[in-house]
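Changelog note: in this version the structure field was regenerated for every chain. One regenerated record is shown below for reference.
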Amino acid sequence: MRRFIIPQLRKLGIALNQFSVVIPETLSNISGLELLDLGPNHLAGQVPDNLGVLKDLQWLNLQNNNLGRGTSGYLKFLNSLTNISGLRLLNFGVNNIGGVLPNTIVNLSTHMQELYFEDNKIFGSIPEEIRNLISLTIFEADNNYPTGAIPTSIGKLQSLRELDLSWNRLSGLLPSSLGNLSLLYYLNMSHNDFEGTIPKSCHNMEILVLDNNKLNGSLPGNFIGQMNQLRSLYIQKNLLTDSFPADVGELKNLNDLIVSDDKLSGVIPAELGNCLVLEYLDMARNSFQGNIPLAFISLRGVRILDLSSNNLSGTIPKELQNLSALLSLNLSFNYLEGEVPSGVFKMGVEFQSWGTTRFVEDSLNCSCQHALIFCQERMGKGSIFQS
């Protein structure tokens, strides 16, 4: 890779090899280059800061190499790339590039559609002028060290479809302008320090990931129901309060719903039974009360159901025996009573096949077909079995 003297070359791809050299500055000699794909490999060192002379370059992929050393000084190449007016894709994610995110990033081509720099050592803040990248459809900057708030100007990126800022050190409020992104279908803000309430999201949202933050308050009115394309909702490990909205029943495409480790209360909405393709439901470690909704018998595809560590009472619906896809059911640490439905829990052969047939502090572990089922009561309550 030391010499490149093929100026007529338009596309150069060496991805998915074992190259471990430094990217040569002589790449700039390929003056007509439109596509440059160098990753994944094991390329190291600096990204040449003369790539800006490649005026026809539209696609630059440096992903998944060993570029940088985790320290400052490895983002200088971005200044040069601002000279390429037709650049549409820039990917330097999954490297070891460090330093402060330069403001010049907002001067990249207004034709830029995809920008990736996830899994690096980049810090600083997201500049307000990010709105300049008006053609951006995908922006992934997760697993870095940026701090501060997300600028409200991000709502100006009307073409944005995927936004991932997870596993950073961002804080402040989630800007309400996110609701202006009508094409956005994937939003991941998990594992940051965001606080305040959750703003309304756009109608086309399919995957919404907000877990492991400090979001609080109640879920806004019509927050759930308006996202009628939603497939996955992860809002666990926040400080959310009040009841869970009943309009969840309008989500006919919902596969995964995880709201565990919050401060939610009230009854579990029976409307969840309308989510017929639901496979993963985790509402554990909240303060839900009342009965297990009988409507759950409609969840024929549910594989994981966790309602543990709440204030649920009443009996276990015997109709749960019809949930043939169930792999894991956790009802531990509630106030359930009455009989364990024999048709569900198969206490004879299948329970014994797990090798555990004992009570431990009013608890019982048992198997349901091929599922691992937990039916453990809170301390101070009697056995859920009746002789």
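Spot check on this record: Confidence is low (pLDDT under 50) at residues 346-372, 375-387. The radius of gyration is 26 Å.
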